[in-house]
């Protein structure tokens, strides 16, 4: 009794009202995880008392810190319901440093029950926001969870679309590869080069190339380079074009002739 009087004298006794009693009742083992019976009464008790948010915060923190897994989970459910229903005053005053630290520890502690840990994560993300931002969320936790779920759905949708596009691209590339392969197989084969049959044309192209080369040399020789550039001389450029064309024909025959002994200048006696 003396100790109690001493605490009261220095105003150190923690407030204990129906708020703490309601938190005890609503976190009992007999209460279902998602039950909301009794929440309206708790909201009324908090809003009727000046220190209501502080006492509610302390009572919930106690359950989170020292309660069993079911009590921890229920404490988070209750906290979310209070944020959504107690109004502006509660939203801007209930989250002191101790409560935030407790929820952070609960969300990160590997020893925490998985179900409670999953609920504590979004709860901490919300509480870590500035007070002014928290107050803007009339349905704070619900808004955060809805937004998070929407982002996850959008991410899954985009990932699925990317997989489908990649699969379609692969299908098109495979179809194009098969088409080209089929065209290559169905392409008429060129008849083997018959040198004896083509001999007159081969020799004629060699003679033509030789003549074009001689014409080019003569045209260059006739240019007075003191007065005119080779590049601007029309005759030189004409002979150069003819020599290039003749060269193409000779090169083509060289590529077709497999017997190297047949490649050379024509016999003048033929």
TrEMBL record:
One of its GO terms (biological process) is actin filament organization. GO terms for molecular function: phosphatidylinositol binding; ubiquitin binding. Residues 152-178 have a biased composition (Basic and acidic residues). SMART domains: VHS. One of its GO terms (cellular component) is actin cortical patch. Signal peptide: none annotated. Residues 26-119 form the VHS domain. Residues 152-193 are annotated as: Disordered. Residues 179-190 have a biased composition (Basic residues). SUPFAM superfamilies: ENTH/VHS domain, GAT-like domain. It holds the Pfam family VHS. This is VHS domain protein. The lineage of its organism: Eukaryota, Fungi, Dikarya, Basidiomycota, Agaricomycotina.
